[in-house]
Amino acid sequence: MKNSNYISAILVLFMTNATAQYSNIERTTINESDVPEEVIRAQRMEFPGGFVTNWKFHKKQIAVDSDATYYMAAFKKAGRLGNYSYYTDTGKLLAYSLYMTRFDLPESIQNAAMNNLNGSVIKSAELIDLENPKRMIYRVRLNSDGSLQYIYFDNNGNAWTEYKTTVTAPTGVDGFYFEVR
Fold this sequence. Notes:
Number of strands: 10
Low-confidence stretches: 1-10, 15-23, 164-170, 173-181
């Protein structure tokens, strides 16, 4: 249950048009001295040679079980900014994301994105690597007639037509509203 809650929180982070009325995530920039040693150690093991440029502490205003907090490292890898990793307070890697330009995208993803909206222009993208369940997702930002849209693809260039995630309401809440646009 904890893993599905963490993954849900990470997906909500990446799906910027997603809203949940029962919870907001507070993001605070923190010093490395405020990051648990297990998280720092995990970052160094997962991304050797990566240079952390800043740490953030993410806290849900309303916690679900023990999924209230996680840590995000923004780091430089192979001289390139735009790398982000997300950890539990015990150092378990939840997800990794990489900012990409349209030229960094695999050709299959570029073609699928361009075919999805006629006349659209790829602004940028992210490669999102979820750890549990293991899944790689491309989130592509498209601009069509001044409108910014996000489209999600799997590794093979298949567009997601239906988004599924697990969201658990806090104890005592009879119902809640969750929407992905």
